């Protein structure tokens, strides 16, 4: 039966800010903070703080700080290399118990150290595509303090903003998030195919409040009483496509890759070792 979602949202104004950070996550030199989306984020008050990398999964996140708004935004990169493609195709690659996320234990130190100095900051988890899925699981681990150092500080609050988010978990996972009194905004652009994967027939359920960018370009705040509003993104499921997944408002997620084709090609190069 449909239940009332306790989580706050969607927040259109904030969603239109963090989208630039998710675009910056695809750039090849994030610490330089000079890509078009980095500069846009900087104009909104966000400065680069640190980068976190998981070699095993070849996934990446970076931390940006807005001192005026007292926000720490941890942004996760989406699919950009062959290892990410493997994760996308694997139905159970992300394990909450195993900690197979970017910010596994030992890699949360940069976030923890900042919070120890500024514990009145809000922590925002954001990402696009695969990054949005990993952001969700990482937020769960942070909020439930799973495998965190004993002295890991608690921030003022947590929030989540996902763009082109696939279905991440089952009904129990959705129930958990929908019962949280916190900001959970899931943005879907038009007929983005990722919003319909993996299939709900396999038991996957969306969580959080949906903000749908309609085919007209207008934003629609969807129902807060059901998990997936049939009058929102699900209404165009039959037209699901890739182009809508790659463009959210004025952020084109492949623009950095297109500007640096050599670095992009290297992401998909798999070295072959020759045996003697």
Question: What is the topological layout?
Answer:
Elements: H1 12-24, H2 36-43, E1 47-54, E2 59-66, E3 71-76, H3 82-89, H4 109-117, E4 122-128, H5 130-143, E5 157-163, H6 171-178, E6 183-189, E7 209-213, E8 219-221, E9 247-248, E10 251-252, H7 255-259, H8 261-267
Parallel strand pairs: 3-4, 4-5, 5-6, 6-7
Antiparallel strand pairs: 1-2, 2-3, 7-8, 9-10
Brief summary of the model shown:
By secondary structure, the chain is of the alpha/beta class. Helix content is 26%, strand content 20%.
Average pLDDT, rounded to a whole number, is 81
Question: Describe the biggest sheet?
Answer: 8 strands, mixed
Tertiary shape: globular
- Low-confidence stretches at least 5 residues in length (pLDDT < 50)? 81-100, 267-276
State the secondary-structure class: alpha/beta
Oligomer status: single chain
Q: How far apart lie the N and C ends?
A: 62 Å
- Rg (C-alpha, Å): 18 Å
Strand content: 15-25%
Number of strands: 10
Task: Give a verbal description of the structure.
Mean pLDDT is 81; it is low at 81-100 and 267-276. Helix 1 (12-24) runs antiparallel to helix 2. The chain is 26% helix and 20% strand. It has an 8-stranded mixed β-sheet. It is globular, with a radius of gyration of 18 Å. A hairpin with a 4-residue loop joins strand 1 and strand 2. The chain has 276 residues and is of the alpha/beta class. It has 8 helices and 10 strands.
